[in-house]
Amino acid sequence: xxxxxxxxxxxxxxxxxxxxxxxxxxxxxxxxxxxxxxxxxxxxxxxxxxxxxxxxxxxxxxxxxxxxxxxxxxxxxxxxxxxxxxxxxxxxxxxxxxxxxxxxxxxxxxxxxxxxxxxxxxxxxxxxxxxxxxxxxxxxxxxxxxxxxxxxxxxxxxxxxxxxxxxxxxxxxxxxxxxxxxxxxxxxxxxxxxxxxxxxxxxxxxxxxxxxxxxxxxxxxxxxx
Length: 225
Ligand SMILES: Nc1nc2c(ncn2[C@@H]2O[C@H](COP(=O)(O)OP(=O)(O)O)[C@@H](O)[C@H]2O)c(=O)[nH]1
Ligand SMILES: [Mg+2]
Known about the structure:
- The protein is of the alpha/beta class.
- It has a single domain, classed as Rossmann fold.
- It contains 8 helices and 7 strands, in the order αβαβαβαββααβαβα.
- The protein has helices at 5-26, 42-53, 70-76, 95-101, 146-149, 151-155, 175-185, 202-213; strands spanning 30-36, 59-65, 82-86, 112-116, 133-139, 159-163, 190-193.
- It has a 7-stranded parallel beta sheet with strand order 3-2-4-1-5-6-7, sandwiched between helices.
- Helix 7 links the parallel strand 6 (159-163) and strand 7 (190-193).
- Helix 1 packs parallel to helix 4 (95-101).
- It is globular, with a radius of gyration of 17 Å.
């Protein structure tokens, strides 16, 4: 008899992720699973987002890392509740890891939870964590061929942050061609070209995020940013 361990593992992850999702809904917390290669700028993007958001929204962060707590220390400096998950070499977070740390947050008081996944364009995309949206940070320094080489991550995402546009003149990336490639993989993607370093292009992202955070019946923009 051949047992498909991979399928069994995914089935059990889906069950845990569904429980997580139910808990998030019960507490009206929106959850973003932030994906991308090592060095794409996930933590920098999160820092920029938190700086804009935490004036008006209560946000928590889970930092997934292979070995260190460096990113969690960066986030803690912003006064945001942050929990570090150390995967001890594991290449992705899974639903059970998230479930295990949820008791460390006061979910009832949060409006948004951002989970920075382990830097990797392959494994994290197959593990549902219970999030509302997967958001991918892709930097132009990685080269323009990454979406077509790693389509799965982009297929399941709601938005792609095209980061480091300040470096475009030093790369051979054609921004319009990159956008077309992304949309040919997933026509529903929201695309946000930004520079976290130069603080460029972030306003449309803040507006999109704010629209996701709106509660049923709430006026658009009632929180402001
Ligand atoms: N030039 C440039 N560098 C950036 C930008 N955003 C992040 N970086 C740099 O890219 C490196 C990796 O950033 P980090 O946020 O740690 O990436 P992560 O591994 O995806 O979390 C750091 O040296 C950042 O300063 C950007 O918009 N432009
Ligand atoms: Mg990081």
